[in-house]
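FYI - complex with magnesium ion, inputs then prediction.
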Amino acid sequence: MGHNQAVFIDRDGTINDKTPAYYIYTTANFKLIEGVGANLKKLQDAGYLLIVITNQGGIDKGEYTHKDVARVHRYMRELLESEGVQLTDVFYCPHHSDVQECECRKPGTLLIEEAIEMYEIDRECSWFIGDSDVDMEAAKRAGLRKIRVETNKPWGDAIQPILDDVYKP
Ligand SMILES: [Mg+2]
Ligand SMILES: [Zn+2]
C-alpha cells in the first residue's frame, strides 16, 4: 500500500473560474480563482501531493485538441509555480459519454486509481476537492474523503480539515 498523502483537485470551477466559456481550452480563458494558489501552497507545505483530475470531454466532441489541453495545463502550472506551487501531476479524461463510454471520466475513478498506483498514495489519508456532484461521486467511489467548494468561488477555510488531518509519524 502507498504511503504518500495526496489531495486530488478538480480543475474547472475549482481551480479556475469557468465563467469565460463552456469549454476552457485557451490560456486567455484560464483564470485562477482568487486564493487557490495560496491554498494549494498550504496543502503542499503540509506534505500533500497535488494531483489534478479533470474531465475534458470537449476533445471527444471535437471542440478542441489534446494540444490545446497541454497548452492550458502548461499555463496553469506556470501560474501556480509563480505562487510556489508544484503540481505533482495533471490527469484528464478526453472522452465524452455522447461519443464513447470510458472508466476515466468522472465519476469514473480510473485516473484516480492510476495516480494512486503511480505515486504510491494511501487513499485513507487522502482527499478530493471539487465543485460538482461528479467530483463527490468519484471521490466516494475511490474511497477518498471529500470537500465540496462553491463553483468559481474562493475556497475560504474549506481546506482546514485537510490541514488538520496531516499524518504525523
Ligand atoms: Mg468542476
Ligand atoms: Zn475517459
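The chain has one domain: 6-164. Residues 10, 12-14, 130-132 surround magnesium ion (ligand 1) (CB under 6 Å).
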